[in-house]
């Protein structure tokens, strides 16, 4: 079904995009900050559900559209590379801000909707997931299972990160340096997307 290199590329793509700060990860970290790890765990299921719906809908749409517009997948890869490059530059300029602990904790519905509307869903469907995942049931099941297995620990890491910030354990952490390191990773990933689109 998938070659070893395709599986490795899928795994790397999923991890790189999921660790990137964004609306969903900010909500997860903020929940960890305000209510701790244990009470925030159900949010992981809300994130997974939001991405499963978003990726599935976008993937099916793009699979159908690619028949009429064969140039669409290449254009989407280029657009995704430009978008990720924009995120990298934007991340370099500004530190990630978590909502203050006085704000109300995010609920399951809030996190689900934020994830459903997250542009990363389109990025996963159009660029990270192989096209075969949306035309063959077994390939879809494999890709989604892999996605779920990678999402759970990364979401937990964002929650734990927020909880550690709230407890003062990460007082030594420099958010600017952390964000700039992440922006470099994003920049390299955007270049790899652009390279893949033209080769």
Automatic annotation (TrEMBL):
GO biological process terms, alphabetically, are: cysteine export across plasma membrane
Question: Could you state a single Gene Ontology molecular function term?
Answer: amino acid transmembrane transporter activity
Membrane protein topology class: Multi-pass membrane protein
Q: Where in the cell is it found?
A: Cell membrane
Q: Is Cell membrane one of the keywords?
A: yes
Which organism was this protein described from? Paraburkholderia lacunae
Which superkingdom does the taxonomy of this entry point to?
Answer: Bacteria
UniProt keyword annotations, A-Z: Cell membrane, Membrane, Transmembrane, Transmembrane helix
What name does this protein carry? Multidrug transporter MatE
Question: Which residue spans traverse the membrane?
Answer: 6-28, 40-59, 71-89, 110-133, 139-166, 178-198
Q: Name one GO cellular component term.
A: plasma membrane
């Amino acid at each position: 079904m998938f070659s070893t290199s395709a599986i490795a590329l899928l795994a790397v793509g999923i991890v790189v995009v999921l660790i990137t700060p964004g609306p969903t990860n900010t909500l997860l970290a903020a929940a960890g900050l305000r209510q701790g790890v244990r009470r925030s765990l159900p949010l992981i299921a809300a994130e997974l559900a939001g991405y499963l719906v978003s990726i599935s809908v976008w993937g099916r749409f793009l699979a159908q559209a690619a028949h009429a517009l064969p140039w669409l997948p290449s254009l989407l890869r280029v657009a995704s590379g430009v978008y990720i490059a924009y995120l990298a530059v934007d991340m370099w300029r500004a530190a990630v801000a978590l909502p203050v602990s006085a704000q109300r904790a995010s609920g399951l519905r809030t996190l689900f909707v934020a994830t459903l509307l997250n542009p990363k869903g389109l990025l996963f469907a159009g660029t990270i997931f192989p096209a075969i995942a949306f035309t063959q049931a077994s390939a879809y099941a494999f890709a989604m299972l892999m996605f779920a297995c990678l999402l759970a620990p990364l979401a937990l890491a964002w929650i734990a990160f927020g909880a550690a910030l709230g407890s003062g354990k990460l007082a030594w952490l420099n958010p600017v340096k952390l964000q700039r390191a992440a922006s470099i990773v994003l920049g390299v990933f955007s270049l790899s997307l652009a390279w893949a689109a033209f080769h």
